[in-house]
Design a protein that fits this description.
By secondary structure, this protein is mainly alpha-helical. The protein has two helices and no strands. The chain starts with a helix and ends in a 5-residue tail after the last helix. The longest helix is centred in the first third of the chain and has 29 residues.
Amino acid sequence: MNHERKNNQGMKHMILMALACIVPLAIILVVPFFGISSKRTTIGAIGLMIFLHLLMMKNHFNWGRHH
């Protein structure tokens, strides 16, 4: 049972990591279609990607402390 919970946490973490990549990339690729293309938008999306990944890494390292 503990193995299932750990596996579910791992799957949730992988989904969140994928979203942390997909959402900023979608911003970079889709926003120009609305005429809002700028260097600030690209830099902001890349910054968002880095921030979300760091947030996921922080949560990943805290998992071992709760068990």
